[in-house]
Design brief:
Blueprint (H helix, E strand, L loop, with lengths): L4 E3 L3 E8 L2 H13 L15 H9 L10 E9 H7 L6 E4 L10 E3 L8 E5 L2 E5 L3 H27 L4 H4 L8 E8 L1 H11 L13 H17 L1 H9 L6
Parallel strand pairs: 1-5
Antiparallel strand pairs: 2-3, 3-8, 4-8, 6-7
Helix pairs in contact: 2-8, 6-7, 7-8
Length: 238
């Protein structure tokens, strides 16, 4: 059996993109100058930062749909199940029917808050005690080792991969490609990150926020003017 690996981080790589602030400009200006907006494809977006901010502020969203980004993501399966609620993305995930799944599992890191206080819609998380962190770490490792051993035993006995995978926990890492436009990404970030300056507060699970933060950093480097307008206007998806 392969050695079981435990990790607490997320992988996000920008593998392909066609995205720039200029995309927003020429897409928006077709509404007022028609075919002449094609001349704006290579325009200097710095001269049109005000236009981008206006579109963001007044929530004219479609000009932000003309760029594309594809991310490669490795994260626990429970993160992907939240991720795929965002149906404006396109997804392709690795399949446990067609390949043997690697024994890589998530275990919460020492800085992951563990204790929930309050009730749904009005609760906070606190760090937890050293004993609680030790219990979580030990239990995750024990259960995942046992589950993968059972999975490997069934495969060795000739059981189909699609049947044997049923014993594996949601903490198993999976991988996928996720493709989106900036408008879809802004909607994702508005819901899956918690920021003090946001117009509408959000309370995401920490693990999907870790993915969102890495995606946000990649997008901010690609489209800095659009990203600045997103921040300036309360991180609201236009």
């Amino acid at each position: 059996m392969q050695e079981v690996v435990f990790r607490s981080d997320m992988t996000v790589e920008l593998v392909k993109h066609a995205a720039s602030d200029a995309d927003v400009i020429w897409a928006a200006r077709v509404s007022t100058i028609g075919e002449q907006s094609r001349a704006e494809i290579d325009a200097e977006p710095d001269r049109s930062a005000g236009l981008i901010n206006f579109l963001m502020r007044d929530r004219h969203g479609t000009p932000f749909e003309h760029s594309s980004m594809t991310f490669y993501v490795q994260a626990p399966i429970f993160v992907f199940r939240e991720f795929m609620r965002h149906r404006t993305f396109s997804y392709n995930e690795e399949s446990g029917r067609y390949r043997q799944l690697d024994p890589v599992f998530y275990v919460p890191g020492p800085d992951r808050p563990l204790v929930q206080t309050g009730k749904p819609g009005a609760y906070e998380f606190t760090s937890g005690t050293a004993a609680q962190h030790a219990l979580v770490n030990e239990t995750f490792r024990e259960c995942c080792n046992q589950a993968y051993a059972a999975y490997a035993q069934m495969l060795d006995a000739g059981v189909a991969r699609e049947v044997a995978r049923g014993v594996l926990p949601l903490s198993l890492y999976s991988s996928m490609y996720a493709t989106c436009n900036p408008r879809a990404l802004m909607n994702f970030l508005a819901l899956r990150t918690r920021r003090p300056g946001a117009a509408f507060p959000s309370f995401p699970q920490r693990e999907i926020e870790m993915v969102a933060e890495k995606m946000e950093a990649e997008w901010a480097a690609l489209m800095p003017i659009t990203y600045a307008a997103f921040e300036r206007n309360g991180r609201v998806c236009p």
